[in-house]
Amino acid sequence: MADASFDVVVVGGGHQGLIAANYMAKNGYTVGLFEQRRELGGGACTEPRPVSGFRGNPCAHVAGFFASPCNQDFKLHEKGLNYIFPPVHSSMVFPDGRCIVSYRSIVWDKETGAITPQQDIVEKNIKEVERISPKDAETLAWFAQGKVWEWGFAAQQFLWSPPALPGEIDPVELLLNDPNSGLQRRHQFMSATEYVSDFFESNELRAHSLRMIGSAGIYPDDVAPLPVMMFNVPMQILGFGGGVYEGGTHNLTHALQRALSEQGGKFFVGADVDEILVKNGKACGIKLADGTVIEAKKMVITSIVITQTLARHLRNVDLGPQGAEWRRKIAKLRVDRGQIFWGHFAFHELPKYKATAWNPDCDKARWIFMGDADIEYMDREYRFNNQHIRPGHWPPRLYLWEGTDSKWDPSYAPPGKHVSLLEEMAFPASWRTEKEWLQIKKEAPDHFLKEWQRYAPNMTWDNIIAANIDTPWDIMQRSDNFVEGNWGLIAGTPSQFGASRPIPEFAQYQIPGIEDFWMASGSCHYSLGLTGWAGYNCYKRIAQKLDLWKPWEGRLF
């Protein structure tokens, strides 16, 4: 006899699992959600950083979730989830004092989810680019006249839908088949550098785009998934993008948790799931590490990375004639993209960027990217140098990303003080020993500050109160989900994207041969960061199969 029983059992309490749980509870199912750690949230966490009195987001940071239909489906704005949208979206600052500033060009309605472009702001952003490159401004003007909406809608529909089945429409494929779309099949096979070089003429715009794409776990010489490139180049430069989670990213988790509780769902923390139980080819429950058995009368949904799902939770399940091959493929998935150094710096005085002489608004941006307009270095040497960081050996240049949320949200720092997140790309945790990581962690603040001072000379140790670097090793220790410290769970390369994520056989959120078992993990299509794509798209397939509530009918996605 089971120790407890639910219609639906959800494994993992990150935002993907919470999304799937909420949709099932919305349909009247009893839902039990089980999380290994002592709190829900996974990467959606906010903690003291880098010292008591200051707060930071050590895993996930970008508030792209505002575009999720889940906001409206669960009325998350009534449950404590609020976003702050600074009027300056991003800036890229160069060592010579020039910069590219992008003003936020969309308005989001929290009640309806409607996103309305502001054409006057789009044109303002084009004018900013014109100061750097008149030719690139012409390209952006052409794009903004109509292509931006075609590309934007196609990318969003692609990401907010399960991978297309035979007979279903693939919105990106439609664009590729349209000779007037501006999107070409050769773009599918280009590296990020090739793609941005095809789009932009100036190295400044190319460097800006490549640094933004880097935050999606894509190095310049990587072949990047086309929908990711479509959204980031050039839409981000035109002012499309996310904001700040008011009060920290953990408020996303809290809102989803409240929504689940209001619908009668139960959640259990400190509940380490050891095994997913399968009987007669159907998922029927879970067993916890302490031996407790939980019955799932209708289905089991997991939000745990696919590698752990197979190696641990389904270790005793016979997957049939192809099982050995599936396990081999999963064990060989790439996890070497998505590792990041997360540096939290508390300081007295806000950074004073030299580039404010070029545009006084550059330091008001939500995101501030820093780097040389050196495409040769970015394409040929950036990854090599970064992936060979070791104690006492650092690359000659870094490409930092800075976000000082305390400028917008006073809850992050004491009055008159500030805290900033600095990001730089890294490499898998296993590439260095724990001892080496500890030394790298110790050395990193000096190197980050040295680079920061090239753009903001006042960012010296005299201005710093405290600093902390979360390395890939640190991230890996937080959760088994973050394989090798990868915040995307598995790499978002084209071979692990869309209908091939995590492998083609599992791309529809199920494992053939196991009924009533579904996967809403970020290792499924397509989840990097706090997007909710996997949880939402998994539910879409469940709803189609069981004829459940379909809130997307009548809207874009």
Note down, in words, how this protein is organized.
With 557 residues, this protein is of the alpha/beta class. Among the domains are: 4-38 and 269-334 and 481-546, 3-Layer(bba) Sandwich (FAD/NAD(P)-binding domain); 124-232, no CATH class. Helix content is 31%, strand content 17%. The protein is built from 16 helices and 20 strands. It has helices spanning 15-26, 70-73, 119-132, 134-159, 171-176, 192-199, 203-214, 226-232, 250-262, 306-313, 323-331, 375-380, 382-386, 434-453, 472-478, 533-546, and strands spanning 4-11, 31-34, 47-48, 55-56, 83-84, 88-93, 99-103, 106-108, 115-117, 244-245, 266-268, 273-279, 282-288, 293-302, 340-347, 367-370, 401-403, 418-425, 464-470, 517-519. Strands 1, 2, 11, 12, 13, 14 and 20 form a seven-stranded mixed sheet that branches. A seven-stranded mixed sheet has the order 7-6-16-17-18-15-19, with helices on both faces. Strands 3-4 form a two-stranded antiparallel sheet. A hairpin with a 2-residue loop joins strand 12 (273-279) and strand 13. Helix 1 packs parallel to helix 16. The protein is globular, with a radius of gyration of 23 Å. The model has no long low-confidence stretch (mean pLDDT 92).
